[in-house]
Amino acid sequence: MEFKVPQFIDIEDKIAGPFTFAQLVFLIGGGAICYIIWTVLPPLLTFIKVPLVALVAALSLSLTFYPKEKHGKPFVEVLESGLKFFFLKDKLYTWKRVPKEQVIIKEENTGKTKISVNIPSLSASKLKDLSWSLDVKRELDN
Q1: Residue 49, H or E segment
Q2: What pLDDT does 138 receive?
Q3: How confident is the prediction for the chain on average, in pLDDT?
Q4: Domains in the chain: how many in total?
Q5: CA-to-CA distance for 44 and 105, rounded, in angstroms?
Q6: What is the rounded average pLDDT of the residues 19-33?
Q7: Maximum Cα interatomic distance, the chain, rounded to a whole number of Å
Q8: What is the mean pLDDT of residues 64-82?
Q9: How confident is the model at residue 39 (pLDDT cuts 50, 70, 90)?
Q10: Residue 108 lies in a domain
Q11: Torsion angles phi and psi, residue 116, rounded to 5
Q12: Is 132 helix (H, G, I), strand (E, B) or coil?
């Protein structure tokens, strides 16, 4: 028996023209929020209305049209990660580069200068653990 295998399962379906359902929701929702802001605020507060509507429109357009291919993630996920980083979660820095200490040794009899860098070495127990884990992996592969 032969079965047809779907080819493009990772591409979202287009609902209206070139827009997917999510893009349509972002576009219509952003337009509705802009309309509500423009009609609810009184005309005297135009200096507040215009930047607020521009901000909501820019956010709505970037949620709608930002290309996924640029960073591998849609703008919604980038925005969510940014908001979590700045407002919700504690920041955890896992790595900080520490410069290696250099020791300059000048030999008296030859007059040459020698620079030595302190490089950490493997202890015998760590070396045995590494050797054992490689041997176990090699046996599992066979």
Answers
A1: helix 46-65
A2: 58
A3: 79
A4: 1
A5: 76
A6: 92
A7: 89
A8: 81
A9: very high
A10: no
A11: -115, 140
A12: helix
Residue 131 CA to residue 121 CA, distance in Å, equals 15
Q: Is residue 129 part of a domain?
A: no
pLDDT (0 to 100) of residue 110: 66
52 part of a folded domain: yes
Contact indicator for 118, 100 with CB cutoff of 8 Å: yes
Whether the predicted pLDDT of 131 surpasses 90: no
The residues, any chain, with a CB within 8 Å of residue 117's CB and separated by 6 or more, are 100, 101, 102, 103
Q: Where are the beta strands (DSSP E) in the chain?
A: 14-16, 19-20, 102-106, 113-117
In a domain, 113, yes or no: no
Tokens of 98: 């520490």
Sign of CA dihedral 125, 131, 135, 137: positive
Burial code (b: 16+ CB inside 10 Å, e: under 16) for 50-59 equals eebbeebeee
Tokens matching residue 64:
């709608």
pLDDT at position 125 is 74
Looking at residues 39-47, what average pLDDT do you find? 89
Backbone torsions φ then ψ of 128, nearest 5 degrees: -65, -40
Q: Which two tokens stand for residue 63?
A: 């949620």
CB contact at 8 A, 106 and 114:
yes
